[in-house]
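Worked example 3. Consider a protein that binds adenosine-5-diphosphoribose.
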Amino acid sequence: MDKIVILTGAGISAESGLGTFHDEDGLWTKYPLEDVAMPEGFARDPALVQTFYNDRRKGAAEAQPNAAHFALARLQADWHGEVVIVTQNVDGLHEAGGALDVIHMHGELAQALCAFCGHRWPAPAEMAVNEPCPSCNGPGGRPDVVWFGEIPYHMDRILQHLDEADLFVAIGTSGQVYPAAGFVQEAAARGIPRLEMNLDPSETSPVFTEHRIGKATKTVPVWVREMLAHAP
Ligand code: APR
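Given these inputs, the predicted complex is written out as structure tokens:
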């Protein structure tokens, strides 16, 4: 077994103090996603959307990576083969924990995107309504996060990695949002082992071949130790 592809979701950052989305007390129970995570919501009320992401950017900047983020970085560094981390998270905690070449399929809070010309630049701590784009000077600055109805980033690369993987692992994701929720099906179609590490069984649990239920800060470091101990 050489190549491992790992998909992470909000659950891996929960113990760093960042909220999850679809859980009982998740973010989408407090803020309707139609208002803050859809292009139509941004067109309707850009101030509300910028404030929502400004708060989340601040929260992410203040958060610390936890034992699960550090363990994945260690696996990447010490594994004899390739470890690809694909994340739905926009918080940057994988990199803060030492991970490399993380694929951010839902964008990053630390980046800004011009809705007019597509230019990207490091987001200021607070983005304003009509945030000016440093490239086209238009007032099109928005958070560089993928909203519902938009196409996630780097899909070609991710599918290529899945096609080459010997093991697929999903950590802290509820399996409710596609296309990420469909990655386990891709792995199943190729017949490779599929491990889920989550607090509860997810929507896609039946498609996995192994389950480790519990908090990511407990399950992930144990799994990484086992992988490194049994590596050839
Ligand atoms: N350890 C492991 N798993 C946890 C922990 C924890 N400490 N805390 C919560 N979880 C699990 C929950 O049980 C849940 O199944 O993490 C999962 C989080 O699910 P979601 O809130 O749906 O987050 P995610 O799957 O990342 O959401 C996908 O939806 O709204 C969009 O763009 C947003 O990227 C996000 C996408």
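Take a moment to read the result before moving on. The first strand starts at residue 4 and ends at 8. The chain is about 35% helix and 20% strand.
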